Input
Amino acid sequence: MFKQVELEYAYNALEPYIDALTMETHYEKHHKAYTNNLNGAVEKLNLDNKSIEELLSTLDTIQDEALRKAVRNNGGGFYNHNLYFKSMKPNGSKTPTGELKDLIDETFGSYDNLKDELSKLGANQFGSGWAWLSLTPDNKLVTSSTPNQDNPLMDSSNTPLLGIDVWEHAYYLKYKNLRGDYINAFFEVVNWDEILKNYKEALKK
Output
C-alpha cells in the first residue's frame, strides 16, 4: 500500500510564494487521488510488493494496457508529487551546497545557469508536465522535461533529484496563466538540503 509523503510544513508555510489553498488542494485532492488510484491498480495486478521506482521503470512488463496506463499516470503522479512536496520548505535554502553545488557548477557553469535551464524547460513544456534535474547512471547531471505525469524513470535509467510541477493545478489559483512567475517563486522555497540528500542516495544505486 503506497502512502502519500507526510508534509513537514503547514499548507500556508510556503507563502507568499506558494499559497495555502493551492497547497491544500494539491495535496489533499490531486495527490491523494493519484495515490488511491495507484493502489487500486497495483492491487489488481498483484504488484504491491514492488517499489514505486521498480513499477515505473518496468511499465512495459504490464500486459494489460488499461492497467499499464493507470500505473503510468497515477504511479507517476504519486512518485512525482512525493518528490515535489519534499523538495520545498519555508524560506527555502536558496542555493545548493557541498558536492552537489560543485557538480552543478562543473556541469552548468553556475547555479544561475541551472535555474535558467530548468525554468525554460518548465515554461516551454506544452500543456501539463514537469521539468527535471536528474542523475545519470554514470553520475552526471542532466535536465529534461516530460509531459503529463511522466518522469525520467519511465524512459531512461536516470534518477530524478528535483522536479518542478508545471501542471496548472500547481499554480493557477495564485499565478493564473503566468507559469514563469510561479517557477521563479518555486526556486524561493526549494529545499536544496533535500536535493543533496537525493543526490547522495542516487550515487549508491
Observations:
- The chain has a mean pLDDT of 97.
